[in-house]
Design a protein that fits this description.
heterodimer; A: about 80 residues; alpha+beta; Ubiquitin-like (UB roll); 4 strands; B: about 150 residues; Aldehyde Oxidoreductase, domain 3; five-stranded antiparallel β-sheet; four-stranded mixed β-sheet; 4 helices; about 35% helix; globular
């Protein structure tokens, strides 16, 4: 897992590892992260798999590059 | 189309000049610069980072989408990463078009969409501490409805 922005800082690393059972989805991965990261930030974060935004239902495959993306940029209109 | 992530100072004037062609009747520029405060708190500098490979892909897709969606001739989209000082350009968008209406619309759509969707983050260093900028909420179609 690649972490960015505030999530990277909170985790103290840009790369996190999680063991998942085969057939786990993006949603299950995110549920498993609860408790180790602030709930609000996690809930507002998107997930990219192989550099594309992914739905929670997407099933992860071995070797996928998963990134947890906190809300981006923070520009105010 | 010129789409880049850079670490050096963005020379806005040069990029705007280079974007113009004979068939253009308008060039619309959005020059996003570092403000000296956030809600009254004095800013020293901003540190921008990105999920670079994905950010560049997204920026290329958005630039191409702006051309086809609004029928403009060309788009320049440059985003700077690293440490930026007050007044420096973080994002430059130049839209060149035969007519002004399409140029304005494409430029506005591009910056709004970049702000929501290109994976980059800024950490603001104030005189009295640092925070990550409040992010734009992701659109529902990106966040997914399952969570």
């Amino acid at each position: 897992m690649r972490l960015f922005g505030p999530l990277k800082e909170l985790a103290g690393t840009a790369d996190g590892w999680r063991e998942l059972r085969e057939g786990s989805s993006v949603g299950e991965l995110m549920a498993g992260l609860r408790g180790s990261m602030p709930e609000g930030l996690l809930a507002a974060s998107a997930v990219a798999v192989n550099q594309e935004y992914a739905a929670g239902s997407l099933v992860l495959q071995g070797g996928d590059e998963v990134a947890i993306l906190p809300p981006v940029r923070g520009g105010r209109l | 189309m010129r789409v880049e992530l850079v670490r050096a100072v963005i020379d806005s004037a040069a990029l705007v000049r280079d974007a113009k062609a004979g068939s253009d009747g308008a060039v619309c520029v959005f020059d996003g610069i570092v403000r000296d405060n956030t809600r009254g708190r004095k800013t020293l500098h901003l540190d921008y980072e990105a999920y670079e490979e994905m950010a560049l892909t997204q920026m290329r897709e958005l630039a191409a989408a702006a051309v086809s969606k609004f029928g403009v001739r060309d788009v320049v989209l440059v985003h700077r990463l690293g440490r930026l000082l007050v007044g420096e350009t973080s994002v430059l968008i130049v839209v060149a078009s035969a007519h002004r209406g399409a140029a304005f619309e494409a430029c506005r759509w591009l910056i709004d969409t970049v702000e929501r969707q290109v994976p980059s983050w800024k950490e603001e260093q104030f005189v009295d501490g640092a925070v990550w900028g409040d992010g734009e909420p992701f659109p529902v179609e990106i966040l997914g409805v399952e969570r």
